[in-house]
Amino acid sequence: MKRRSFLGLMGAAGAGLAVPAPARAGVKDFRGFLETPGVLFDGTRCIGCRKCELACNQVNNLPEPEVPFDNLEILDSRRRTDASTFTVVNKFETPNGPVYRKNQCNHCLEPACASSCFVAAFRKNTDSAVDYDDSVCVGCRYCMIACPFEIPTYEYHKVLTPRVMKCTLCGPQMRAGELRLPGCVDICPVEAMIYGPRNELINLANRRFKQFPGRYVEQIYGEHEMGGTSWMYISGTPFRQVGLREDLGTKSAPELTAGALAAVPVVVAVWPVLLGGIYAINKRKEKIAAQEQKQAVAAAVAKSKEEAEEKLATSLSKAEEAANRRVDNEVKKAVKEALAKKEEELKAADASKPDEEEGK
Amino acid sequence: MSTETSTDFKSYLTPFNIITGLIIIAGLIVTVIRFTGGLAAVTNLDDNYPWGIWISFDLLCGVALAAGGYTTAAACYVFGFKKYQSAVRPAVLTAFLGYVLVVLALHYDVGRPWRLPYPIFVQQGTTSLLFEVGLCVFLYLTVLFLEFLPALFEWKGWKKLREVLVKMTLVLVIFGVVLSTLHQSSLGALYTIAPSKLHPLWYSAYLPVFFFVSSIAAGLSMVIFEGTLSHKYLHRMMDSEYNRNHNDVILGFAKGCSWVLFGYFALKMIGLTYDNNWHYLATGFGVWFLVELLGFVALPAFLFAVGARDNNFPLIKWTAILTVLGIVLNRFNVSLIAFNYHLPSEDRYFPHIMEIIISVFIVTVGIVAFRFISTRMPVFFEHPDYKGQH
Amino acid sequence: MEFSSLHEFFMHTKTMTYLLMGGILVGAVLWWQFLMGEKRQIENPHQTDEENGQGHGH
């Protein structure tokens, strides 16, 4: 092979290796939704007018509520989202007077609902909206268990077609071109909400912190909570005072279940090995035990056979001896008898002799 | 109670039949309401409590208490405790019926039950632990069915089919253990996604391990408990082989259960230490946690050991009940009592009477089915044609 | 393949892992049979291939 072509091949191999799979660290870090749209809610601006609730109700064609949207007394009671209410504004009493906060789906960067859904009915869209597909939903409601923000709700009253209901970030309407902004953001009379790329929202929030020193708790709720959310909050009072939990941690839902999911294939691979091994060990023990038993039985049989033979031999010899003795005895007896007979004959002969002599 | 030979109506009116009959009628009425009025008509479920007792009791407890199937089969066929052979069939039958009932209960609980096969056949949400549970329960139900089929074939006298299945025993048993390990642990792992909702004393990254290990204890205790019940009420169906081994099984399982509970107790302590949760023990939830851990884990472990050492059968039987109650308590704690612990008490869930009726109805259906099958098929006795062939 | 979130990445890897798990379970059974099932070949290394083929039949 010519040196040049060999080098050429080497080069090609190197390029072939480098292009499709650039070596990266083993860390899995995904940043796909850091610059997609989000909403920043400024709690210092919200006046609790419930216009956003009204807009939400209208653009999503939700049923008319029992209490009309211009009734502000309802703010005194704590409310949560339900199957016909995708967003609610709650009033919180603080030392500095009442504070309002709007609640709706936060459209997590790593949605717990999506991670928990066993038919993958939830999907985070490229426009940041966490979409729900009711055509596959079984209605197990695990998403409601999983959601740390207690957002998804269920149509419990429906018999045949109950759905999980939650804010869609007006994704369907905006994709269809019906809306330019989410309904709630659009209607807000005080611009308490801003819609825009998430990274720019974070910059904006930080600018406001600088611009108005002392006005804000200088932290963006949702920047890191549960792996980060597309909908974020800034507030003048500690977040826990406006009903936002500060103990959620920064671990996202997929990270929380990663350990348990990672154990699944391990069990599949290792259990048959372990259990098969234990089975084989037991089988082998049984086999050896059976063999040993067989050997023991064979040995015992051989031994008893030997003993039997020996016994037979001795008893045979004894019998022979006895027989011999009996023969001896018989012979002796016979001889004795014969002798006795002879003697008697002789005696008889002696006795008859004189008679003969007398008779002569 | 034996009514097979009599067709006289009056002989059916035993207390057992009257009570089960009433429960089944009530259950059927609630079933109609559930499927015509929706979940809201029969449950107290709401947006904060999407899962009520149908999940806590029927799914979580049902699956844990049906663990006798895989533990007994593994003990007999893999670990080589041949003496437990006679306990395998009742345990497998209980497990099979248990899982059938779990699936039946899920039909009441989910919103669109006809879509239950979707996660397996339509769109797979593989990141979900519930997918894992669903897949394993589906596969394990098949395995249990195949494990039990020989009894049906013996009853029907289909020898060739039986032969095929008997040859597959080892594979089925090992598959069963793999699948059981996975879904028992995954039921606990369901809650690992919600650290903010479950009280820290019960939340742990070890939840899957807790659920798996405690399911073994539950399975062993259920075999002891059911063995006692069956002994009392189905004695006429048992052959001398079953009865001769019965005491061996109970002693062996009591020992095994005590040992497993020791391990479970150790794991719970590790969980406490790993997350540094000791300081919660001084709170109200802490006392409740200690009641569960000491009264329903440590105590039965000790009592089983004493019972097994002294051959004290009544003690073992009562301890088995205590252990089963302990597992039920644990599943309720994780899924209801310590779940949503942060909510104000007026937002908390209490089951609707109709939810309870459905749960009782489903257990009753199980008992009736068990009686029906075990009084006909060779469950507690060896079929005369297949004696000693295992 | 590009993934924009950890969730998408897991959805892909878990799906692949589940398929692999199915393969592992089937493979384990076949491997066990290969390992434990046929003893004749070792005892008689001069056996012909045809006989081996028959030996595997059940």
What is the string of helix and strand elements of chain C? HHH
Tell me the number of helical segments of chain B per DSSP (H or I, 4 or more residues long).
14
Total DSSP helices of chain C: 3
Task: Tell me about the largest β-sheet of chain C.
Answer: none
**Count of β-strands of chain C:** 0
What is the terminal separation of chain C in angstroms?
45 Å
| Averaged pLDDT of chain C | 75
Q: What kind of oligomer do you see?
A: heterotrimer
Q: Total number of β-strand segments of chain B?
A: 0
CATH homologous superfamily (4th level) name of chain B: Formate dehydrogenase/DMSO reductase domain
Strand content of chain C: under 5%
State the CATH architecture of chain B: Up-down Bundle
Biggest interface, residues from each chain: A-B, 62 and 61 residues
Please state the structural category of chain B. Answer: mainly alpha
Report the principal-axis shape of chain B.
globular
Largest sheet of chain B: none
Q: What is the overall pLDDT average of chain B? A: 90
- Determine the fraction of residues in helical runs of chain C and give it as a percent range: over 70%
Rounded to an integer, what's the Rg of chain B over CA atoms?
Answer: 21 Å
Explain briefly what this protein structure is.
The complex is a heterotrimer of chains A (360), B (390) and C (58). By secondary structure, chain A is mainly alpha-helical.
Describe the structure.
The complex is a heterotrimer of chains A (360), B (390) and C (58). Chain A has 360 residues and is mostly helical. Chain A contains eight helices and nine strands. Chain A has a domain at 24-262: Alpha-Beta Plaits. The longest helix of chain A has 107 residues, at 253-359. Chain A is rod-shaped, with a radius of gyration of 52 Å. Chain B contains 14 helices and no strands. The model of chain C is unreliable at 41-45 and 47-58 (pLDDT under 50). Chain C has three helices and no strands. Chain C is an all-alpha fold. Chain C is rod-shaped. Chain C starts with 5 loop residues before the first helix and ends with a helix. Chains A and B meet through helix 3, helix 4, strand 6 and helix 8 of A and helix 1, helix 2, helix 4, helix 7 and helix 9 of B.
How would you describe this structure in keywords?
heterotrimer; B: 390 residues; mainly alpha; Formate dehydrogenase/DMSO reductase fold; disordered N terminus; C: 58 residues; 3 helices; 76% helix
